[in-house]
Amino acid sequence: MTQRTCKPYEGLLVVSLEQAVAAPLASCHFAEGGARVIKIERDSGDFAREYDKAVKGEASYFVWANHGKESLCLDIKDADDAALLHRILDRADVFIQNLAPGAIARAGFDAGVLRARNPRLITCDISGYGEEGAYSEMKAYDFLVQCESGLVSVNGAPGHPGRIGVSVCDIGAGMNAVIGIQQALIARAQTDEGSSVKISLFDTAADWMTVPLMHAVYGGKAPEPVGMHHPSIAPYGGFRTADGQMLAISIQNEREWVRLCADVFGEAEMATDPRFCDAAARVANRPTLDAWVTAHFARHGRAELERLLHQATIAYGGVNSVEDFSRHPQLRRTPVTLESGEEVELVAAPVRHSFAPANPRFGAVPRLGEHSEMIRAEFAAEAVPA
């Protein structure tokens, strides 16, 4: 039986007054799923358009988070433009915004006001620290939230806390927004009423920090930066092979430890050595253990070690550069058309459905204001029924 192709968000109108990363990523998810997404930009454009010029002269973050949308330039402080946006939202299903704290309410687009006009509207407000509390007015760039939440304190090398190398708080908040909106859409199907979704970057990071927080509050000591190691597992990390490559291993239980000693390194007796006989002992004696693993890795080339590790069913992986990753055999890509008309390949969507093509093409990246004239005509006052 042939599976019918469908777009789960087809028929939805999503309006997003957005900038930077979190809100654009959320609305882009709905565009990929078939929704019509109108991106509201000021005349100068979303500042993420100028983050870099890495993608054939266009910004990497913008290309990633904005394909498949329509771009409408509006000045929400202008009375006529504000009225236009209200008319659009009166017909919308979802409204997403991540302006500075308080800005959306001052402009007359508070969630309560909008849902009074359109009771089926789902609103999603994305902020840095939430709308209440001492930090609610703080600027909240991804790096600063990583710092405030303690994320940097558990990353990096010993004595050198480090920022996570991608904008994880922005990305995570965008994904949480998608989850929240999906839940609200299901609730609307049951009640025929819209609702409000509130997301903050700090809450997102705080959720991820639950385990370190519990260690600090209940265990008496928070995890410290350990580089590629793990605070409670050993051996765990990257080790150099004889040909200068690096492989990472992760020994998660005693069965794997026994096989590593006997089948990979040929020293079965090490499995019962008092210094390494259980997980706690191995962590306590990590420097000695790592020196022993390092010495064995240095005796074999990468290919030989991969063969031995695979045969022993030991978890391992290459410590790849981004260039290595770009050639990874498991990396899936999807083409997208840039503002310039040129084509590049993005990483394919991570979620695959049986009802969708195996590798659906992304919509084009919109030029600034590309759809303004069309949308203004469509939602002109005389075009909207009273």
From TrEMBL:
GO terms for molecular function: transferase activity. Pfam families: CoA_transf_3 (PF02515). The keyword RNA-binding does not apply. Keywords: Transferase. The keyword Transferase applies. PANTHER family: SUCCINATE--HYDROXYMETHYLGLUTARATE COA-TRANSFERASE. This is CoA transferase. It comes from Leisingera daeponensis.
